[in-house]
Amino acid sequence: MEKGKLFYLIVALQVVFLIGMIGSKQSTVWFGEKVLLKPIPYDPTDLFRGDYITIRYEISNIRLDSIKTDTADFKRGETIFVRLEKGKDYSNAAEISTKKTAEPYIKGVVEDIYTKNIYTVKEANSSNNYVYEETVYNDFYYREIPLKPAVVEYSYNVGDKVQFNEFNNRVSYLIKCPNGVCPYHSDMYTQYKIGNVINVKKGIKEISIGYPIESYFVPKNEGNLPQFRAADMLVEVALWHGDAVATNLLINGHKIDFR
Amino acid sequence: MPVEDSSDKVGKYKFLLDEARKWAGMGIISKEQLRKIYSLYKSPQKAVEAKHFNIVSIIAIFGSLMIGAGIVLFFALNWSTIPKLVKVFSILAALVVSYYVGYTMKFSKTNFPNVGGALIFLGAIVFGAGIFLIGQIFNINSHWPNAFLYWTLGIVAFAYLTQSKPIMYLSLLTASVYVGSETAYWFNFLDRYYNISYAFFLIFLSLGVAYYMLGNLHEKKDSTRMLRYPFHLIGSFLIMLVVYLFSFKWFGRIDNYGYSTGANVTSVLFSSKFWIIYLIVTLIAAVFTFISFKYRDTSDSAEFHEVLYLGLLLVFTPLVVLFSKINFWMIPITFNIILFLLIVGSVYLGYAKREKTLVNLGMIAFGIAIFSRYIEYLWDVLNGYLFFIVGGVLLIVLAIVLEKNRRKIIDRFTG
What we know:
heterodimer; A: nine-stranded mixed β-sheet; four-stranded antiparallel β-sheet; 11% helix; B: mainly alpha; 15 helices
């Protein structure tokens, strides 16, 4: 082929490729099903790398005791498919599988596998229950010998008196009160609550999943606005055959327009 | 049948004139005879143009880089206010215009071939920028190392079509970044903690050998001979870099958890998708080495040694690393010896092939290697001020010795 023709053919291929990149994502937006996902509470000041906000969702960390799976043995780096089910305001994970499931489902990658102890704590003089998740880090990270099932120790027993603080109904810090005496006093910076452990579930497996919808482009300096700290933010996601595209951020049901 | 335009005429005789220069360097013809041959095939104007070739080319490339930077800055500052469609259109327009104007200047009208070449190079950069920008505009979060793969595949054809060394350098760079980022991506999923330094750099050693052997293969054909330089330079740089890094004693140390990093390599190599990448790159390198060996110039003993020893290095290095569990000093000692051999080889090869780049590379590597060992082993031994004084004296002596020998060697083959 003549040099000129070949040259412009390659140029055309480059243009087609760039348009194709757009097409592959836009087809998910145009043909896909729209679902709403709940981002989990986060500290906004940590999010920003340049103009992107990093979003983790409620479906990013899934406990394997409460969901249908086709295997108990997930590996880091493995591709998995999470089937979603519509809840009251947003969709939740209904099933995790290593094979494609019924629609709507989202494709993700297993990032980490944790073992956790789950404690339910009842606040003293109140009917409030809080959940405390204690991650047991397996120390296989630091040894070369083949991994043995980690001995799961647990720190708290049913009936233990504990002092704790919570954020959004999850316990963020917990400590035993030895002999019934609790070590900390609440002050204007930190509010401690006192309660008792009423339930212990040990050795619960949880997987952390990475999705392609975890960064959302926001114009410079607009990512730190007060609306991002609201707990009522939802993310609209288009799903098509497992591919996902984050299309909008919603605060209290209204789409945020950055221009 | 390629269209013959005026630039081809220079190309047709360029090989002859390069060879004539070599003959003069070897003393086969005299300098006067060389000048006469030159005047036969090059007009005085072209001779002047040839002298300024590199300067115009360099200025033109910087010019395109500045234009590119300016455009990028304009878009960066006003990005949020520009509608998506306009952004996409601007990227595509910049791409097509650079290529069109570049091609016209270099091949159609041939009025400003160097500027044209620089514009085509700019187009190659815009393509890569376009991939990342479109990814950002449309929140495309797919496997990011692939961006570098697509960038490489998109521009490498241009390097051959337009005989452009800058585009070939760019392609090799983006290809190397792809291999590195793909490897780094899979390291995130190792199911235990490892010191990954060895495993990571072993891949770059294989990549360096692959590039170098590809360079040899490019040398065999007239149409690709000029493009061998990027392969040889980047290939030998990568090989030297890895061997240099492995020559440091801390690369062989026992890590904090009581296991030599050599032991870790075995586990890293087999416990993740990393080993697939390593295997593929090493196999490619082995295939190119074999082909290079098979089609070598049998009268050229330099080429025989070059291919054989680099091939051995490809196999030997991972074995040394894997067996370093036995004694961690195996690694620094072995690789210092290999580094020394590589330096000697580079200088010898540069001399035998009349390639200044290899001689210079060898000399620079020698200086860096000596100084690195000095810092590594004498930092703790000498007191602060003494270390700097002795070090400074060493550097000056090195510089003088190296420069004298380098000039002596280069003079011997250029006459």
